[in-house]
Amino acid sequence: MSSNLAGRYVRTQTSSIIATTVFFLVVALVLTGLMAHVVVTMTRSANEIDDARASRAARAAVAAFVARLSGTTTDNAIWDDAYSAVSSPGAADWAYENWGKTSEDYALYDGAVVTGPDGSSIVSAYVKGKSFQPGTFFGEAFFQQINAAAAPAKVPVVNFIKTESGIALIASQAIQPFEAAAEFPKFSVLSFYKAFTSEVLDTLSNEHELEGLSLETTPKPGFLNTPITDMKGAVIGYLVWPSKAPGSAVFQQVYPYLAASTVILSLFLIGVLLVGASEARRLRQLAQTARFEASHDSLSGLLNRQGLLRLLEDLDSPDPSSPRLYLVDLDGFKAVNDAWGHAVGDDLIRIVSNVLMTSHPEVLAAARLGGDEFALVHVGSTAREEMEEAILALFAEPFKIDGRTIEVGASIGAAAHDGDISPLELLRRADMALYRAKANGKGQAVEYDPELDRERIRVAELEGLLKNAIGSGAIEAVFQPLVSASTGAVTGLEALARWKTATGNVSPEIFIPLAERCGLIDALGVHMLRTSIGHAKSWPGLTLSVNVSPIQLCNPEFAAQVIAILQELDFDPNRLTLEITEGVLMTNPDQARRSIDQLKRVGIKFALDDFGCGYASIGALRQFGFDRMKIDRSLVSALDVTANGADILRATISLATALQIPVTAEGIENTRQAAILRDAGCDQLQGYMLGKPMSAYDISSRLEEESAA
Question: pLDDT tier at 466 (50, 70, 90 boundaries)?
């Protein structure tokens, strides 16, 4: 009976302690919350009010900067004397005396440019009293602004623009008489620009009370900023300045009083922290949480890689039903992230995690290994094929997320725990099988086979041989004639790569994709270009076509490499045509366009190869400005197979003719094909009937025979 009373007394005391602790904690939290709310609100409000004032001042500073240069431009552009002078033979001298010379030490502008009525010729261009090239300094945007300002107007076109040295404000206005006539010819354009220099920033800072004002390319963390945009609305820089934070300054003054209050409140909290039982429970919970997080994925709640390996180690024991590991990689998950955002992608990961766990009763555990890759551990008697069908069936129907219909597929790699292998080896085997499944196409399932490892070793050995072959020049160039459809004369040659080894020839369909996968395609491309040009120098008057991999064209250094080789070998760029497939237009159109434009400026031509076997659009043909179209050999061979082959071919050539793009047909094997193509408007032919790929020596011999005849 006394022990019951003692127990009851202990429980009562415990309850009393808990009640007292809760009371102290509530008082402390209420006081802390009230005090923190008042201080934070006052500090934040004061800071926000001053930051808003500073932002308005920054915008006013930019507007004032624009207004000054705009007014200066109008004063000089709407001027009868200027209109008469720029139309005279002495326009350049007049422009220099009135604007170019003034730019040397004039406070209102740093440079003055006068362009002719055609919008592209430079009449006068001076910066700080010295001549300069505005096209190089400002880029293409300069001429876009000139075109926009070519018409007479009472206000100039004003834009910020990215220059070689930073950011500048440029104002452009047609040079026109003060009184407008009924009709005018095209106008010359006057452009003044003022660079965003430190002196300009100091002036704006002093005029608008923006201490510490600077110009940055990106927003500076912890600082206020105003974006600077160009004529297209793209942000090219930021005006950045520190916040005065008056609220924070006041906070520093009252900080001692707040600290004293905090000390008082802390005394209350000490009593809470001394409750040993609560602290022990908290620590135990933290330990359990840490153990869970160490072995589980935070997004899906499934095992992570470490947890999966630990599970496989625990299963590593004699068992009649050996575990089997399935790796599942989502097909199309990146497209979901790109289209709907990462939040939807995360929701999809959670949904897929749940359905994988319930895919089959014999699934022991599921794991997320990272990104969109999952693992399933199967222990049971169900056949592998049945398990794979059950997993793939999960993705047969689209998923619904917030009203969106999301379609993804899956590729599966499977490996059985056969023999005494480690969990890491089992995971590696399943990963090898998954890699092969993805290479075979979407929605595939592959079981690990030792042949996968043997193939990997063979590919690694072939990579080494390919690297040595490129370095030693063992990969040679052969040339297939390109023949005029009207005269039958050889007008050009296409260079093709050939690799001869001691065990036989290696097909380009093998070693070129291998070079792309292992990062050797740039070296191979440079080798082929250098070798081909070296031979082509002996055949003056003939064009040279060289195939370019999409990976090469997407390399930012590709254009510079090609130009350097042409200069080194003193080869006329107008004789060189680079053949590309439409794949590069899909993967990285922006970089492809930059490389094409840079090379076309020096005279190199571009041909769209294999047209007719993919999805190249009319828009792509126009946008990239191809100089030639090569019809895929499948369309030519269809002439002898399908009844409407000739109609399809004529329609394709008519499309090129409408776009004013000359056409080359490859794969011609008989005179009937050549005749149809010639009649359809094809101007250049290529194929075994006209000449097989030949060595440089054989090409020279053929050319000598033709010239002798």
Answer: confident
Q: State the virtual CA torsion across 33, 34, 37, 43 in degrees, nearest 10.
A: -130
Q: Report whether 11 contacts 214 (CB < 8 A).
A: no
Tens digit of each residue's pLDDT (9 = 90 or more) over 476-498 = 999 999 999 989 889 999 999 99
Query: CA-CA distances (angstroms) from residue 40 to 35, 48, 53?
Result: 9, 12, 20
**Cα distance between residue 251 and residue 209, in whole Å:** 23
64's tokens: 């004032």
Q: What confidence tier does 6 reach under pLDDT thresholds 50, 70, 90?
A: very low
Q: Taking Cα atoms as reference points, which of 454, 457, 453, 437 lies closest to residue 445? A: 437
pLDDT tens track for 331-347:
888 888 888 888 888 99
Give tens-digit pLDDT for 543-573. 999 999 888 888 889 999 999 999 999 999 9
Q: Is the pLDDT of residue 24 over 70?
A: no
Q: Among 448, 426, 442, which residue's Cα sits nearest to residue 375?
A: 426
Averaged pLDDT score across all residues of the chain: 83
319-337 b/e with 16+ CB inside 10 Å = b? eeeebbbbbbbbbebeebb
Q: Is the per-residue pLDDT at 242 higher than 60?
A: yes
How many residues are recorded in the chain?
A: 709
Integer Cα distance of 362 and 353 in angstroms? 16
Burial 367-400 (b: 16+ CB within 10 A, else e): bbbeebbbbbbbbeebeeeebbebbbebbeeebe
pLDDT tier, 181 (very low <50, low <70, confident <90, very high otherwise): low
C-alpha distance from residue 56 to each of 51, 67, 159, 266 (Å): 9, 16, 20, 43
Single-letter amino acid, residue 90: G
Closest CA relative to residue 437, chosen from 460, 458, 414: 414
Tell how strand 235-241 and strand 214-216 pair up: antiparallel
C-alpha to C-alpha distances, 278 to 268, 274, 471, nearest whole angstrom: 16, 9, 71
Q: How far apart are CA 665 and CA 683, in angstroms?
A: 8
Tokens of 557: 């250094």
